Amino acid sequence: MSDLANRVADTQAILARIAAEYTPAVFASSLAAEDMVLTDLILRANLPIGIFSLETGRLHKETLAVLDAVKTHYGRDIILFRPQTDAVDAYVAQNGLNAFYDSVEMRRECCRIRKVEPLGRALAGNKAWITGQRRAQSATRSDLSTQEDDPAHGMTKFNPLADWTEEHVWEYLRANQVPYNALHDRGYPSIGCEPCTRAIEPGEDVRAGRWWWEHPDSKECGLHVVDGKLIRIKSVAA
Ligand code: SF4
Q1: Is there an atom of ligand 1 within 6 Å of 100 CB?
Q2: Which residues of 157-192 are buried (b: 16+ CB within 10 A; e: fewer)?
Q3: I need a labelling partner for 206 at 20 to 30 A (CA). Which of 30, 50, 191, 216 fits?
């Protein structure tokens, strides 16, 4: 069995175990390449695992197009969780539409309103959630476990692609003709909200295009918490 085939088999086994032992469980998809691998494995096996994405209201049109591509390819919808309208309106009225460029605090508050709060609603009532995180994405993820406790959300968190490399991800997507975000082919290895993401140059850190105006130590969106602290994604893959 090839290296990729071994990883696919292991990942299928993890997803099947989640479906059998952790119902209800949900997969939080950012619609990035890794997440499309998991989307493909979950939907083709028709596993009883919900798939949702955080529609922040500031995503690229190419990212939103992935939603239509999933619908066309699999005949299934990804459930969208959106920020509270009142909270967005109040933030914009008080600070302006793009206040996240002004300070780390303003940026974190925008992420809290548009991502963290909706994530809490999306996860509520589930026994487990699934992410597309990989060890090779980040120095802080170098000891990422396939399964871990998530006390911040009061459930178990699974990272089935923990030991996948970027090469595995793209080999899988191409071999299985899985739809993916067109921005990946235009210099965007990591994709977040449109105003907070830029393409990177060859040799740059894969996360260099995220919140590029900030000091690297402040880069996090608050979606992943380890030991009570927000964790920063710092690439070692580049
Ligand atoms: S990534 Fe940017 S636009 Fe998106 S929620 Fe965070 S600060 Fe707001």
Answers
A1: yes
A2: bbbbbbbbbeebbebbbeeeebbbbebbeeebbbbb
A3: 50
